[in-house]
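Protocol step 4 of 5: obtain the predicted structure for the target chain.
Materials: sequence only (see below). No template structures provided, no constraints applied. The aim of this step is simply to have a reference model before the mutagenesis design in step 5. Sequence pasted as it appears in the construct record:
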Amino acid sequence: MTQPTLIRRVYGGMSGLPEPLRTALTLAAAGVPVLPLRAGKTPFGNCRTCAGNACGGRPNMKSAGPCRCPGVCHAWAAATTDPDVLSSPGWMAAWRRAVCVAYHPGAAGLTVVDLDDAAAVDWARETLPATRVVATTRGEHWIYRGAMSSHNAVRPGVDVKSSMSYARYLGPGTGTITALPDAVRALDVKEPPADPPAPRSVSLPARSDGGQCPHRTPVFLERGIAMAEQRITAARGAIHATVYRTFLAVLSTHGRCGCLTDTHITRLFTAAQAKGETLRHCTDAWTNARTTLGL
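Step 4 output (structure tokens):
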């Protein structure tokens, strides 16, 4: 039995489906990859099997290997146009809890300039060519035809969402979608460097037992670092605060036992820099977290 047949049998057709799924299936039929968002307008978290990308990740992510998880894992990388996947049992459980629909702009060949406030909207109207506009709670989404890399905070109140990102679907909007202009591509100023700079040297209390983590096993430390990297990578807003809170969490658990190495710290800094943080911001966040904990 195909999933569309199952939908008709169980739900009596499209009218019996959860509203977010009806919207998602309509967008998918138009070639727009979609995924559900839960309360807080964030993606559903990875299942235990996929936590920390232990499954190898999705084929279109930067990690190797396919993921065959039947649930809604890996945030933007889960977005799909396949109606069988969208209506599968694992996804149906998510749609029943979903509050809205998101889409992966880059996979649809689109770029969204997310304008968070009136000042940002005024800047766009003075600087960018007219295109399709969708009203948001506080500002507007300007949608262009063409994909590029995604970056947060390219200027005050402005994010660029395209490849490896997601945007909420808030309706069709008004106006005609135009080609992605150079003025938007020029906002792409936060590409991570080819060779990420090493973080400032950090002194941590030494241990006489060789620096092994006393809480459980060395695997506990590795898992903690991987989860911290994922938390930073998955952040969709408030990047500075997320980086600081993540650094604080790592240091509160491992900062006094001497098991953190330069390699671990570099991994955290690299994850933060990939989200647009500068080395100075990373160093300040690390120093502030250590000061807060009295290290």
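Step 4 remarks: DSSP finds ten helices and ten strands in the chain. The longest strand covers residues 110-115.
Proceed to step 5.
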